[in-house]
Amino acid sequence: MSSFIERALHPEGYHGRGKSPPFFEGWYFKIVDATETHRYAVIPGISLGRGEGGPHSFVQVLDGVTGQTIYRRYPVDAFHAAETTLDVHVGPNHFTAEEMSLDLSGTELPLQGKVAFHGVRPWPITLPAPGIMGPFSWVPRMECYHGVVSLDHALSGQLETGRGPVTFDGGRGYIEKDWGQSFPSGWVWMQSNHFGQPGTVRAGTCLTASIAMIPWLGSSFPGFIVGLLWQGTLYRFATYTGAVTRHLAVTDQMVNWVIEDSVYRLTLTGHRAESGHLRGPGKEDMGRRVPETLSARIDVALDARREGRTLFSQTGHYAGMEVGADIQPLLTRGGR
Fold first, then answer.
1. Nearest in space to 26 (alpha carbons), one of 78, 101, 120, 90
2. Angstrom distance (rounded) from CA 135 to CA 139
3. What is the pLDDT, as a whole number, of residue 336?
4. DSSP H or E segment with residue 72
5. What is the rounded CA–CA span in Å between residue 40 and residue 157?
6. Which of 125, 142, 179, 220 is 20 to 30 A (C-alpha) from 14?
7. Inter-CA distances, 232 with 134, 174, 263, 318, Å
């Protein structure tokens, strides 16, 4: 029990020690250079699957400009990770909260080099609410857990890309992670920390938002967690905070989502873009196809309900966005 408590208080660390299949864990590093013409999602992880893929570790990459993806497999014994800090080795690749070192030579996206992270801004950790999942972090055996390691931070360093070197000095980054048995049956996820006009990004502003069907006591419910970091304040909207979804609609072009609590109304309009396909965890293996883009836009408006005025209204660019699997239950039950 003590190890469960310690891991719950450190969502950035590895939660899989002693786990039996099915289990997965993956860390998501998003990096965008200062010119905003190069953007990547780099995802190291481990899959203790029971399907044809079998247990293995991996690093997968999405080129957010071209949509190209790679998935490099490694043996399980090539994976090493700390339990109370972000310190992950997958083969020759190393990931911490301070930097990542990549050696993906011989792939179709041969990224090599180091990118350092400066001024990481984690989601606050408290005993009642250790991370973005709040009190649900204390519930054992949930299908999928989620953590945010850094909402926004600066970058430095350089990667060789196969098409020449890319310098990330002055760029912006974001880090999150997931672990558990499987991705949900259906979900919507959006994230951007590039607000303002392209080329004039303001550091310190970030939106991360997700809604998914959560299995619970033989049934399920649409649970959501949203954070808007702006001017040093983190505005939180979640099922566990008492916020509610007033409207959720998804088309091939848009995601429209309106959330309210007793004080604020948050309106998100996500403009979808062409996606690449990553691999995601199912009950058996990493065989699920997950469409993801780093080219979406999100219009974000935060209104003070009682005062009847808009506090924040900006567009997030180079947004990550996923609309995954069976979202119909979210659309029919998301407002409950």
1. 90
2. 8
3. 44
4. strand 69-74
5. 14
6. 220
7. 20, 16, 18, 22
What is the average pLDDT across 128-145? 93
How high is the mean pLDDT of the chain?
A: 94
Domain CATH number, residue 234: 2.40.370.10
Q: Is the dihedral of CA 63, 64, 66, 68 positive or negative?
A: positive
CA torsion, points 117, 121, 127, 132, in degrees to nearest 10?
-100
Please tell me the distance from the alpha carbon of residue 315 to that of residue 196, in angstroms, as a whole number.
6
Residue with tokens 């996820």: 189
Structure tokens at 185: 């049956």
Relative to beta strand 99-103, strand 93-96 is antiparallel
pLDDT at position 174 is 98
Number of domains in the chain: 1
Q: 326: which 2 tokens?
A: 């069976």
What is the per-residue DSSP string for 241-277?
Answer: GT-EEEEEEE-SSEEEEEEE-SSEEEEEEEE----EE
What is the domain extent for residue 299? 2-333
pLDDT at 333: 65
Tell me the whole-structure pTM to 2 decimals. Answer: 0.96
- With contact defined as beta carbons under 8 Å apart, do 11 and 147 qualify? yes
Q: What is the DSSP letter of 137?
A: G
Task: Please report, for residues 11, 70, 194, 254, the alpha-carbon distance to residue 7 in angstroms, rounded to integers and kept in the order given.
Answer: 6, 30, 31, 37
pLDDT tens for each residue of 38-70 = 999 999 999 998 877 789 999 999 999 999 999
Task: Express each pLDDT in 225-239 by its tens digit.
Answer: 999 999 999 999 999
Q: Give the whole-angstrom CA distance, residue 265 versus residue 243.
A: 9
For the cut 70, the answer to whether the pLDDT of residue 71 exceeds it is yes
The H or E element containing residue 331 is: helix 328-333
Distance CA 55, CA 61 (A): 19
